[in-house]
Amino acid sequence: MTEAFLHYVWQHQMFDSGLATTDGQPVVVLKAGTLNHDSGPDFFNARIRIGDVEWAGNVEVHIHSSDWRAHRHEHDPAYNNVVLHVVFENDSDVYMENGKIPPTVELKSHLHPSLLKNYEALVAPEADNGIPCSGRVGGIPEFILHSFLDRLSVERIESKSKTVRRLLEESKGNWTQTCYWLLARYFGGKVNALAFELLAKATDLNILSRWSDDPVRVESILMGQAGFLDDYFEEAYPRRLQADYQSLRAALGMEPIGDSLWKFHRMRPSGFPTIRISQFAQFLTKTPRLFSRLLAVDDAKEMERMFDCTAASYWDNHYRFDQPAGSSLSKRLGRMQADIIIINAWVPLLFVYGAEHNQQHYKDQAVSLLSQLPAENNVVVRRWRQCGVVPRNAAESQALLQLQGGYCSARQCLQCPIGFHLLNRK
Q: Dihedral through CA 386, CA 389, CA 392, CA 396, nearest 10?
């Protein structure tokens, strides 16, 4: 039992009728009041009829009436306007600062047994894979589940907008620059996101655009700026990149970020930053006028094709310079990785663009792109599948990530429509 639960019960009037004060006066709740998240009584501006008298004021909620004293409300004049003291169990008489006794109502006998049982099941400490209702959520009516997921998918996009707005501020409102930085960040994946962002910030997109028809030259600039061309090389391809970069570096005033930022350890070789930089170079050369090109696309399949890029042929049997791999592999950016970039970079950028320009259709387009992409397959989504919740597209898989991170992990079941349904299940 927690006060948060009793707040929830009072707010949603989840108790039987026939309330009465501890001295026998009938109580009718005309308005529960507004939940207060700051100091002071728990609910403001309530309207309560006690006997024949209607009262307007505040409501204070406790598990035990003696908590009034424990919280020292009897010394606080802010509680003199409490018109009703709501408790689970009345174990003691209490007084307000002005010496009066607040009318008290005990809820213990007015709560349905299933409500308490359902609440205890939600907050039980046993292992639940991070999803408190994992054993019961599969039976939630679809209209409740999917309407909540629709809301959460937008909430998820808005939570990612923080990164977009940070980069937009740093670029002084330059949308193309922000787009370039953001896409670079997600080309790097989780491990090398920051290094890729710093690489993009150190390498002017206008310089790369001069050689939009020469992916090798673009790769040489990016590899050099990443700090990967400072060694002595035996093979022809890295020597060519090195020569190209050295011929441009001084003339264009470029400074590399250094290779110490890059991480290779415990990564799949296909995700090595060298491979991703080569893929990024290919993407940039095939996508001139970067931001405007992407802005014009409203079909997910077409956008996936735009991100369909393959590293230079040198990387078919290399993962690092001068280190031949044992087998020949295609270093094509997979569809799954392309979808991750679209979901995490382009969709929130498009959403923020619509919000900043007061153009709802761009915000709708962002949500539409998510709904056109397949659902993700990660550890969190697999947990939901095991519970019987199967996302139909990326909008719903993103919603499940938001649900797990924003509600389930923090056990915010009382703020969740799914939790509300489960609490009221008889």
A: -110
Number of domains comprising the chain: 2
Predicted confidence band of residue 138 (pLDDT cuts 50, 70, 90): confident
Closest of 331, 318, 332 to residue 241, by C-alpha: 318
Question: Taking each helix axis from N to C terminus, what angle separates 394-403 and 142-170, rounded to the nearest 10 degrees?
Answer: 90
Same domain as 70, residue 193:
no
209 in helix, strand or coil?
helix
- Burial per residue of 123-158, b for 16 or more beta-carbon CB atoms within 10 angstroms, e otherwise: eeeeebeebbbbebbeebeeeebeebbeebbbebbe
Closest CA to 59 of 27, 92, 18, 91: 27
Q: Cα(111)–Cα(178) distance, rounded to whole angstroms?
A: 54
CA angle 80, 81, 86 (to 5 degrees): 95
Which of 111, 135, 153 corresponds to the end of one domain?
111
85-102 pLDDT per residue, tens: 999 999 999 999 999 999
Give the integer Cα–Cα distance in Å for 274 and 181. Answer: 18
Strands (E), 233-371: 318-320, 323-324
Per-residue pLDDT reduced to its tens digit, 38-49: 889 999 999 999
Alpha-carbon Rg for the chain, nearest whole angstrom, is 30
- The residue among 94, 111, 128 that closes a domain is 111
Tokens for 129, please give them. Answer: 């894979």
